[in-house]
Amino acid sequence: MSADKAQAQRFGKYTLLSRLAVGGMAEIFLARQEGMQGFSKKIVIKRIRPHLSDNEEFVKMFLNEARLVAQLNHSNIVQIYDLGRIGKCYFLSMEYVHGRDMRAVLARSASRHIPFPLEYSLRIAASACEGLYYAHRLTDDEGQPLNIVHRDVTPENIMVSFDGVVKILDFGIARAENLLSETRTGEIKGKLAYMSPEQITGRSLDHRSDIFSLGVVLYEWVTGHKLFSGNADADIIRAVVEGRIYPPSYYCEGLPAPVEAILNRALCRNREERYQSAWDMQYDIEQFLSHHEFNPSAIHLSNFIRQLFAEELSREARAGSASTPLPPEPSDAEAESSAPLPDEPAPEPAPEPLVRRKGTGSRKVEQAVRQGSDRLQAEVEVQQECHLSVEVEMDRELYLRLHEIARRNRVNVADLIRDLLRQFAKYLG
Predict the structure, then answer these.
(1) What is the mean pLDDT of the chain?
(2) Disulfide check for 48: which of 59, 90, 277, 375 has CB 3.0–4.6 Å away?
(3) Given 272, 302, 332, which residue is the final one in a domain?
């Protein structure tokens, strides 16, 4: 028996393989569900912290919201399979997405000094619009609208699978989570920055609140800057309510006018002036991409994400499993004391930024890369009897040629370079 299996924990009919995340409300586990004749399926378990089982108001709202969103069945929404209780622990079992959330994707892209391409930002946003529109217009068996609102559209709740499929997480859970006074300060602060003006001031919400939040997310992806930030909650709330918004082109020089128009409309303070449906926003995004030089597909997105996380995927393939031993369970105090990530200071209307992100006006796929940078890096992993990472420097023209060849052959650039090195080694030998 492997170390992973030896340290796995049983939870009812599920086997918990590894803990993916922990917060004030719940723990998230990668798990396995097994059945007859060797049936086995990876899933995710969201297990509510045991001490919350005594909070009747929280439990009632959590169960009501979970029953509601369990009706969602769409390719761009993480599906809920089961809702139950084992011992004192309420839980949800849901679809496992083999990929990364957009917070992790953007962080990895930044660490590689590669600004996230505009085309991919728009493609992901369009897919998120499709999932939101489906949820917003869902009705019950009698045709009555369910009035589902996500309430927590953030980069962490938008995932991209390694197959290039976009998935929205945690529909409806925000209402229950907001009841908890013990929710960590860092979590609250992070959510405030993506709330609509009506949500942050406690007014009634409808689907247009989610459209505003997605606009905030897309603004961040396109410009590389948070739209609303501050040193304290009050600063963020004031920024959202007053609508202090820098034009996206302030940070992203050469941004196409249609993209700026999409962002400006999604971010209108008055919800009557916003997009009135996620479908309307998706339509404008698709119209722009359809007339753009590069309209990425799921295959393109898959190749890009796989390149960003090539090392992890390679390690995972060698290990033969995505699971890792379960770490010791943290105490409630430990979960509450996790240090939040610092916010960047709120921008002041002053001098022009020293570096602006370039738009995507040329015919080159990678025009999202800063024009002042003439050298890019491609990481190549060569695996024979040992594992070796090689860093290769090349000019932009060569990189783009390799990227196009890889695209035509439906492989990522790292795999292409690895194959070229193998062929060259055979030739020299």
Answers:
(1) 79
(2) 90
(3) 302
Q: Are 124 and 116 in contact (CB under 8 A)?
A: no
Structural domain contains residue 23: yes
For β-strands 252-253 and 357-358, DSSP reports them as parallel
80 is in which domain, residue-wise? 9-96
State the pLDDT confidence band at 373, using cuts at 50, 70 and 90. very low
Q: Which of 162, 135, 138 is nearest to 305 (CA)?
A: 162
Written as six digits, the tokens of 228 are 């609303």
Give the single-character DSSP code of 386. S
Per-residue model confidence (pLDDT) at position 278: 98
Q: Which of 4, 140, 152, 284 is catalytic?
A: 152
State how far the Cα of 312 lies from the Cα of 23, in Å rounded to an integer. 24
**Amino acid identity for residue 73 in this structure:** N
φ and ψ at 139, to 5 degrees?
A: -120, 165
Amino acid (one-letter) located at 399: Y
Q: Are residues 133 and 14 in the same domain?
A: no
pLDDT in tens, 159-207: 999 999 999 998 866 565 555 544 444 455 458 999 999 999 989 999 9
Could you say which of 287, 302, 317 is where a domain stops? 302
The rounded distance, in Å, linking the Cα atoms of 163 and 171 is: 22
Are 48 and 114 in the same domain?
no
**Exposure of 417 by Cβ count < 10 A (0-12 exposed, 13-18 middle, 19+ buried)?**
buried
Cα 157 from Cα 233, distance rounded (Å)? 21
CATH code for the domain of 29: 3.30.200.20
* Number of compact structural domains in the chain: 3
Neighbouring CB atoms inside 10 A of 60's CB total 12
For residue 118, is it within any domain?
yes
14 located within any domain: yes
Closest CA to 357 of 115, 120, 145, 153: 115
pTM metric for this prediction: 0.73
Q: Provide the CB-side half-sphere exposure for 151 (13 A, CA).
A: 21
Type and span of the H or E element at 101: strand 99-101
Active site residue 152: yes
